[in-house]
Amino acid sequence: xxxxxxxxxxxxxxxxxxxxxxxxxxxxxxxxxxxxxxxxxxxxxxxxxxxxxxxxxxxxxxxxxxxxxxxxxxxxxxxxxxxxxxxxxxxxxxxxxxxxxxxxxxxxxxxxxxxxxxxxxxxxxxxxxxxxxxxxxxxxxxxxxxxxxxxxxxxxxxxxxxxxxxxxxxxxxxxxxxxxxxxxxxxxxxxxxxxxxxxxxxxxxxxxxxxxxxxxxxxxxxxxxxxxxxxxxxxxxxxxxxxxxxxxxxxxxxxxxxxxxxxxxxxxxxxx
Length: 272
Fold this sequence. Notes:
Blueprint (H helix, E strand, L loop, with lengths): L9 E5 L3 E2 L11 H14 L5 E5 L5 E5 L1 H9 L4 E6 L4 H10 L6 H15 L3 H8 L3 H8 L6 H8 L6 H8 L4 H45 L9 H35 L10
Parallel strand pairs: 2-4, 3-5
Antiparallel strand pairs: 1-5, 3-4
């Protein structure tokens, strides 16, 4: 006998029975964020139930909570709690998803456009339904003017700021939009390289500090008071450190000699 679901009531659902909304707003799920959510669910459980409804075939369809369902399955759960809803499910799903964090600006813009088309909304009606300022809605919708290659890149890279896409969308031609977007991507790549270099240098300083600290710890080490087995283990460890230190010093000296050979002599310089 089929279960009779009551609106607003909480049910325990089998994840395997849940079907995604084919027109859900979220087209991209960040793998790192999904893994973090799965780890949180594994530790604390799901704090906010999903919403579900019955689709045209009578199956259970997710209205909101697609990411939670995916993360729950990743965490090894087979069941999840959900609240049954009915009525204008599509409108509820639109509003709920567009008010959630984590949507890329492209997903947000495309869902707003779809919502306007499906309900024949103008921008004022759309803003009212979403509880947003009309200017904000107008700006977000402008992202749909961007060429597909830009939208595709932004859809799969949630780190691209919305402001960058809005700036590109203000351009009058697709060529100028691409130029504006490429300028940002180039600058972002350079900034990323500089950040990586800074981080690498920081790691080098940490390693040098650790080496200095080890030298300090070895000073005055009361090894004579240790058991014979511990002294033997210490001797073996120190021998290994000495071998590695000798190898590194020899290599560093060899590199220094090479650098000296490559330096131009003063007599060979053209001063004219």
